[in-house]
């Protein structure tokens, strides 16, 4: 949600910012200004009518007391007309306000000035050099789907079983078994330990079902409902742990001592992938259900938020470096960012079967966009010059640290061997009882 007063005071700035996200979308400013005028005009009419009603209601008694019945009748008619105007103006005010809130709730966040212009991923800008040297293979590389399917247990069953998952759940699901499932579990545990022990995030085990208000708070509703799975009349399955973690501060006023607040969680994530028809239909790149370790930070203001974005991105990069997976950092252009972000870095890992880098983490600074929707605030400390402090909206960030399934994909592709075995990255071996390879 946006501050209407700020839009009225600087409409051109908002027009330009929204046009950077999607060309031509800045015209919504004119709609917002027209609706705010409609609200103000209806409010003024209602208030004027209330004044007329209240003033003349007092005079009716005086007229009756003096025996002037004609004057009393005239005043009663004025009051009756005023009541009709109050009802009509109130209805017009409520309708215009509801339409205004509907428009505002569906708008994306404003990109920061240093976010590059552009429409899609082709306009994103690599930051610095890529980390790590892609491995040179002496044998034909298999993509992760074929390689994982060719890994067998003692009975000859595939450890990466798309057929069984499809029979029970349909397309875009997978069943991971045996040592490969153990490797996936180790990955999640390693990431959580890394973020909590090395980077001081607080681990949270959050609900996987949330109400619509929580999804509204982080910006998934109302605009992206088609990407969600609804469970019953009141709940949705979470598309990412960003939703419950960020909503931990919804409706709260935090103290200065509580900030910055850093939380992490590993959860299943559920997405309908409504807009991805025909994309990555093979394998584990784009599933309806996947595991992810999420990072969320709650900070005081923009300066702290931008510094936290660099820190959060490094926390995600360090996981890839520990796993020795080549990657690069991309600064997303305005048109490729998520709706709630003001600035986003994507980390892309090298997939040898595709001979390209693919997204494995996205870290975003959201400013006070989510905080306004959640009414999440903090109270600055008092001082001699400011004995009382007014609560201010917090600023929020979220990022993947990392997507567990996609990291498993990257390991299967980068650590596969000519004999069909999979070497276990050294950072994970202690989580697997010293296991060095999966054969």
Please, could you describe this protein's structure?
- The chain is of the alpha+beta class.
- It has two domains: 4-105, Orthogonal Bundle (Helix Hairpins), CATH 1.10.287; 121-438, Bira Bifunctional Protein, Domain 2 (BirA Bifunctional Protein, domain 2, 2-Layer Sandwich), CATH 3.30.930.
- The protein is built from twelve helices and 18 strands.
- An eight-stranded mixed sheet has the order 1-11-12-13-16-10-9-4. It has a three-stranded antiparallel sheet with strand order 5-7-6.
- β12 (343-351) and β13 (356-365) form a beta hairpin.
- The longest helix is centred in the N-terminal third of the chain and has 38 residues, at 28-65.
């Amino acid at each position: 949600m946006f501050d209407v007063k700020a839009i009225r005071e600087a409409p051109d700035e908002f027009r330009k910012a929204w046009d950077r996200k999607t060309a031509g979308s800045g015209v919504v400013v004119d709609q917002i200004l027209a609706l705010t005028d409609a609200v103000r005009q209806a409010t003024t009419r209602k208030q004027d009518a209330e004044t007329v009603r209240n003033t003349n209601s007092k005079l009716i008694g005086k007229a009756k007391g003096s025996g002037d019945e004609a004057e009393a009748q005239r005043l009663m008619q004025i009051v009756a007309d005023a009541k009709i105007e109050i009802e009509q103006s109130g209805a017009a005010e409520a309708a215009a306000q509801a339409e205004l809130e509907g428009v505002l709730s569906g708008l994306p966040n404003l990109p920061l000035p240093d976010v590059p212009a552009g429409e899609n991923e082709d306009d994103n800008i690599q930051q610095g050099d890529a980390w790590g040297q892609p491995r040179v293979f002496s044998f034909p590389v298999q993509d992760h789907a074929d390689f994982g399917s060719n890994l067998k247990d003692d009975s000859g069953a595939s450890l990466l079983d798309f057929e069984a998952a499809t029979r029970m759940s349909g397309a875009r699901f997978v069943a991971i078994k045996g040592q490969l499932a153990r490797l996936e579990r180790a990955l999640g545990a390693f990431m959580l330990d890394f973020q909590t022990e090395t980077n001081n995030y607080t681990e949270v085990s959050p609900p996987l079902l949330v109400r619509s208000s929580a999804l509204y708070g982080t910006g998934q509703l109302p605009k992206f409902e088609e990407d969600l799975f609804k469970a019953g009349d009141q709940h949705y399955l979470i598309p990412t742990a960003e939703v419950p973690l960020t909503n931990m501060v919804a409706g709260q006023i935090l103290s200065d001592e509580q900030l910055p607040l850093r939380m992490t969680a590993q959860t299943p994530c559920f997405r309908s992938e409504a807009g991805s028809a025909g994309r990555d239909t093979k394998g584990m790149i784009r599933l309806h259900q996947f595991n992810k370790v999420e990072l969320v930070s709650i900070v005081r203001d923009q300066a702290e938020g931008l510094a936290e974005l660099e820190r959060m991105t490094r926390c995600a990069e360090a996981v890839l470096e520990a796993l020795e997976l080549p990657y690069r950092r991309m600064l997303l252009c305005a048109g490729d960012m998520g709706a709630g972000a003001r600035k986003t870095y994507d980390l892309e890992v090298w997939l040898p079967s595709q001979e390209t880098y693919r997204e494995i983490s996205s870290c975003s600074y959201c400013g006070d966009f989510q905080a306004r929707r959640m009414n999440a605030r903090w109270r600055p400390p008092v001082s001699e010059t400011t004995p009382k402090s007014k609560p201010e909206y917090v600023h929020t960030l979220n990022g993947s640290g990392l997507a567990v399934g996609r990291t498993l994909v990257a390991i299967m592709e980068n650590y596969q061997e000519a004999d069909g075995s999979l070497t276990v990255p050294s950072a994970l071996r202690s989580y697997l009882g010293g296991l060095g390879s999966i054969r």
